[in-house]
Amino acid sequence: MISSLLILVSAATAPALDCASPQTQLAMNVCSFQDYQAADKALNAAWKAAQQFAQQADRDSPPARKADSAVAQLLAAQRAWIAYRDAHCLALADQYRGGSIRPLIKNTCMTDLTKTRTAQLREFSETN
User: Fold this and answer.
1) Are 117 and 81 in contact (CB under 8 A)?
2) 111, 104, 128, 98: which is closest to 2 by C-alpha?
3) Three-state SS letters, 55-113
4) What is the pLDDT of residues 29-64, one digit of tens each?
5) Please, are residues 7 and 23 in contact by the beta-carbon 8 Å criterion?
6) Lowest mean pLDDT among 2-11, 60-69, 111-120
7) 98 in the Ramachandran plot: left (φ > 0), alpha (ψ -120 to 50) or beta?
8) Could you tell me the domains of the chain?
């Protein structure tokens, strides 16, 4: 938590970084966090489209029970995925506890898994 806060404070006060070729561990950490933020933004857009698709599916074929609705199932899957992503990336990063590379490891993991999930949500909402 403190290391993430330091990255954010450093990012806010540091000169513009060349994220195409970061030269320091701090720059790599900050740039990897920016990459994660961009991936998360794309995920949120894909999530909205997937929700709309699920809502339309429910309108076209109402479920017998609300818990069986496409929206409810999609939401349950997303919540489970978020819990998995966060726990997995934290476990991966904790191998480097105390090291300056830890934020880079966590951010890269979060970015990779988020991009994969974004593709899955896009595929879901583009079905049929």
Assistant:
1) yes
2) 98
3) HHHHHHCCCCCHHHCHHHHHHHHHHHHHHHHHHHHHHHHHHHCCCCCHHHHHHHHHHHH
4) 999 999 999 999 999 999 999 999 999 999 988 777
5) no
6) 2-11
7) left
8) 2-11+24-125 (1.20.1270.180)
Burial class (CB in 10 A: 0-12, 13-18, 19+), 78: middle
CB 125 within 8 A of CB 52: yes
Quote the tokens at residue 24.
């320091």
What number is the average pLDDT over the span 90-116? Answer: 97
28 backbone φψ class: left, alpha, beta (φ>0; ψ -120 to 50): alpha
Q: Is the Cα dihedral 100, 103, 104, 105 positive or negative? A: positive
Alpha carbon distance 95, 63 (integer Å): 45
pTM of full prediction above 0.90: no
Q: What is the CA radius of gyration of the chain?
A: 18
Q: Average pLDDT of 87-95?
A: 98
